[in-house]
Amino acid sequence: MNRIATNIWAKHSLGIIYILMIGYLCAYIFPLLIAFLWQIEVPFVRDYLALWQHSYLLAERPWTLLTYSLFHASLLHCFFNAIMLYFVGVLFMNLFTPKRFLSIYVGGVVAGGLLFMLLYAVLPVFAGHDDYLLGASAGIMAPLLFLATYTPSYRIYLFGIFSIPLWTIGALLVLIDLVSIPIGNAGGHIAHLGGALVGFLYALHLKGGFRRLLPKRKAKTAYQGKYPNQATEQRINTILDKISKSGYDSLTKEEKKFLFVASKEED
């Protein structure tokens, strides 16, 4: 049964992306429909499903650490996040499985919410402010920054003319969030940074970046110990080095397939 499920996911790797996009749309329409049919105010979403900065409210409504990411403040907000989710998902599934995407996405949602609460609690500038989070941007930033760190040389073509390396897009988005905090929607931009941090650290871990910060005892490869076959480990590291130097597009079809299959085995 597990093998059958794995084959289904392999053929329909964007399934989780479509489910999330439908979830965004339903979460936007449902409150409006309920408000119309029962003639009530829409703010029940804000009061019971959004994430507020107060820790006592999180203790009373722990589900809000996840539900805030499904609901959006406006249709434009919902549409923009759905588009971003789709393009990030397409890039991500070239290398990894839906299972890994979902783990990074949820990690970004949780980290974004917690960083928002932490900074609102400790920074004097936010003292006396009541604020809340709605939107999936923190979750989307996590896999985006993961890719920007894991495959920094991968190039995105805008309008078929401009070629931009993925690391530039990631760095630019982080910079925009940093400089935008004093301007407006501080909580949202802080949450974006929390999600970005999760993606960056996870990619660094996967590439073995943390080992370079430790005292060197003997040479270790980025995938040492994760596969029983040493030749498999060496080939994975060779492919990763090729991606870092020349980008994902430089890989052959066989190399892309090998890396994807290896990532599934690791999951």
UniProtKB/TrEMBL annotation:
GO terms for molecular function: peptidase activity. Its EC number is 3.4.21.105. It is found in: Membrane. The chain crosses the membrane at residues 12-38, 70-92, 104-126, 132-150, 157-183, 189-210. The keyword Ribosomal protein does not apply. Pfam families: DUF6576, Rhomboid. Keywords: Hydrolase, Membrane, Protease, Transmembrane, Transmembrane helix. Belongs to the peptidase S54 family. It comes from Capnocytophaga gingivalis. GO terms for biological process: proteolysis. It is a multi-pass membrane protein. This is Rhomboid family intramembrane serine protease. Its main location: membrane. Residues 232-259 form the DUF6576 domain. It comes from the Bacteria.
